[in-house]
Amino acid sequence: MKDFKQKLRDFLWRARNTIHFSSVRTTEFFQRHHLGFITRWPGWLKAIFYLAPALTLLAIFTFYPIFNSFLISFYTGYNIQTGEFDGYTFLGNYAVVLQHANFKQAVLNTAIIVFVSVPITIIVGLLIAVALNAVKPLKSFYQTIFFLPYVTNTIAIGLVFAFIFSGNTNTIANPVGLGLANQVITLFGGKPIAWVATGATYWSAMTVILAYSVWNGLAFKIIVFLAGIQGIDKQYYQAAQIDGASRSKSFTRITVPLISPMIFYILITSVIGSFKTYSSVVAIINREGLITTGAQGSINLKTIVFYIYDYIGGAALNGVMSYASAAAIILFAIILVFTVIQLQVGKRRVHY
Amino acid sequence: MKRITKKIKRLDLIATLIDLVYVFAGLALITYFFIILKEPQYITEVINTTYPVMGFTITSAQLNAGISILVGYLVVFIPLIVSHTKRIRNKDDIEMDEWTYRTQYLYMFMSLFTLNPFSAFVRYLMATDILETVQDYGFLQATKNVLVTLKDFFTGKTFKRIKEKREHRKVQSETQADLEKISRQDLLVKVLVMVATYTFLTMIALFIFIPFYWMMITALKTHQELSNAITPRMFVGISEMQWVNFKVALTQFNFYTYIANTIYVGILSMIGTVITTILAAFAFSRLDFKGREFIFSILLMTMMIPGELYTITNYITVRNLGWYDSFYALIFPFMTSVFYIFFLRQSFKQIPDTLYRAAQVDGCGDFKYLRRVMIPIAKPTIITITILSAIGAWDAYIWPQLVAPSEEHWLISVALRSTSFVTGEGSDARPVYNLQLAAIALVTVPLLIIFFSLKKYIIRGVGRSGTKG
User: Considering only CB atoms, which chain A residues are within 8 Å of B197?
Assistant: First the structure.
């Protein structure tokens, strides 16, 4: 056995030497004949080995889908089981989606969420970060509390929000129970409101969604702003103090300009994130995104993403996926336009 | 400043070990209590029976109170033990000041109150030891000092001293008095600003924290209370806490299965993400090949495109691959992430290139270099990526509910939204909120525990650049 092991080792050693020797000879040969680029292929091969797992997955689940979704959006009568389709239409699917009343409503709902919740979260987040930076005792305690929403399940706490705003006796017979929110309202002498239950109005339900968006979005902003503010040199503030600048002035003239890159980054990411709102509406309202209010019909609180997933849910029908793709591309276009506008404005306003 | 001695460290170790034994006993007891908790026949029922526990018979209320007390004990003592263990394992010298022995006395009283005289005794020895090292006097002298201060206070000596000081100030020149006036005004403004700041922070902290509190408190109430009371209670007595709700949520609503599913999917996709990300980030940061920057910029561009665009085709792909309604569909699409590759590449790039050259000269292959040098150096970032991808799996809702709609493949988010926690049928259906919130708490609390234990890594990762909008 020992002998065999020794022999094997010898053989491997010899084989390795042979390979090495021949490879060195080949390299020399190529280089002598101005064919050096051939010997560089091992670098490529190595890169392929390292990149293969990630790139294969990305190719299947990221690159291919982008092109394919564009293609699908031009088909008519596309069947996902067989992959057959009736023919092409250039912008027909887009026209159908854009003229759909539900889509217009979805764009409106999404726009409200974006234009109300994003400014509020950014301003409040900035104020909290400044306040956190000013205190010393209990700072890490507050920081921990403010960070909690980041590590929670969106659906789970959304359901808790729905419960807080609906009430403990929320049934069909008695829709206006006293949840925590209504209890606070009655404490201040107001009238309880049916926030998201039957009998709700559009704005009451929207208020809950907005409150949840703010609650959910604050954590991330506070952490980024705080990191930015802590990086500002103290000397600026001392100089401002000597010159007699007030607190508000040193906030608007020193803090805001110096962390404007962070504010800008947060603005872009949170606008994109808010345009893609979905889970919070599912958690607070329901999976249909509709509140039925008896005789008046229903309140539609679907966002754009909601609209897209409604189509995907009915994927068995022919041609439905094309509408979904068209809607997704319209969403992409909207996001792209907003991002470009922000980048243009940012060029002038942001101090790097 | 005095340093901690070996003797104090040994005492600390003994006390911590005793605490550890107690905590394990507490854990065992709580598990036992949960096992013997009787589930009601019907979900809204409240059970009032007696349980034989180790020779005693205790009522439901007593059992509930016991569980509540044990939970409270564990919530306080497990973090304490963790922080003590960290301090014992810490090789650096720890400096002691007068607060060190005061905290030890506090721990002593805490141990006494939790029926742990052994640990309390060791803590007492430790505290006196620290006291002697720090102040150069013992416990007796300390008590005497406290008595003297108290005596001064009660005989009015303290007030007299303050009065003297004030009179002394009056004698000082007028300019001094003016200056003091200005500084006092300054102080007033400062105090007002501080009060305003703390009020603001506390208000926001309440706004953030109330959903968690409300979740826990509602999960512990009975269905009868929730459906009958017009104004819900803000607090629940420890003997009224219905711990059985959690058991019902786990068993009768199958949350065992859903949590297990999520952990299974989460761990597999996490392992996949970490492996593919490390390899790709290494290639993008160290290997030289043509088109490296080009491929990388294409990857970065895909980060801008909304995920819904992929979802449509991925849904078709998954159906064609026959993965519809299986765990494959939940795992494979999430085995890699452009953002994490970008994130890890940044920290790989900070490792000096000379290290790589030196390793090459020493005959260290690329893979070995990656394994032996780069991964250990970039470990914090890799841990951050691991945690963030685990959180991502825990939070996933849209994709799972689309491609795995059948009940045995539900992940927790889908389960929370799709399970109908109702009693009665048809138009009589009434939501059972306490069970729903118990299920929500079961989903939320593990993540919070992970967060508290790995806070450093998560905050660092997010502070640099975040993923959640």
Answer: 131, 134-135
